[in-house]
Design brief:
three-stranded antiparallel sheet, single chain, 21% strand, alpha+beta, OB fold (Dihydrolipoamide Acetyltransferase, E2P), 5 helices, 2 domains
Length: 210
């Protein structure tokens, strides 16, 4: 409360002014203990899953190496198996994350990655044995080069499209090296060496222009 005296006129005048009380400003924080108070947080599983994915790398490398050394005439089926074994544990991991399953599912996920890694290694071993143990005499065919394709990227790939000698097919697609690609001429024949495969998986040998 403030009091002011005003002088003037016959007698002084007294005026009282009431000031409003200052409001209280502030934030009240209420602490409470929930049912999980004091519980230890779950460890981050990101690094664990990355280590699990690394279990698939050796099998993928061996399988792709086998396909490059002994290229199959029909590689799509084996590439499908390779992709399936690689994606299966990853999809199971995603389902686990979406379900918000407890941490004990990490052990089950590890088993899925280990199983897929072993399956990929066995697939690569199968492809190596299919070509390495093949003692059959190779046959040769002379298809005509229809077109040549270069696919760029991290690793440039060279493809030769030749006329097919197999019934029910029009073209054959061969992933070849740069030397074979440069020597091949569209409209002219090339010589392709064929093998039956130890496990019945037909694969091709060298491709020459002579």
């Amino acid at each position: 409360m403030l009091t002011y005296w005003l002088a003037g006129g016959a007698a002084p005048c007294k005026i009282k002014i009431k000031m409003p009380k200052r409001p209280r400003f502030g934030i009240e924080v209420e602490r409470s203990k929930g049912p999980n108070f004091g519980a230890r947080p779950l460890p981050a599983a990101g690094g664990v899953w990355v280590l699990h994915i690394l279990l698939l790398v050796p099998g993928v490398f061996v399988s792709l190496l086998a396909l490059s050394v002994y290229p199959l005439l029909d590689p799509r089926r084996m590439m499908g198996f390779l992709l399936g074994f690689f994606l299966l544990p990853v999809l199971l991991q995603m389902l686990t994350i979406l379900r918000k399953s407890p941490g004990n599912d990490v052990r089950w996920g590890r088993a899925a990655y280990i199983g897929s890694g072993l399956a990929l290694l066995l697939l690569g071993l199968l492809l190596f044995l299919n070509g390495g143990l093949d003692r059959s005499h190779g046959n040769t065919v002379r298809p005509t080069v229809v077109r040549k394709t270069v696919i760029g990227g991290r690793a440039t790939r060279y493809h030769l499209w030749v006329s097919s000698w197999r019934p029910g097919r029009i073209l054959e697609d061969f992933n070849v090296g740069s030397r074979e690609f440069d020597r091949a001429v569209v409209g002219k024949p090339v010589t392709v060496e064929l093998h039956n495969g130890f496990f019945g998986l037909s694969w091709r040998g060298t491709i020459s222009t002579q």
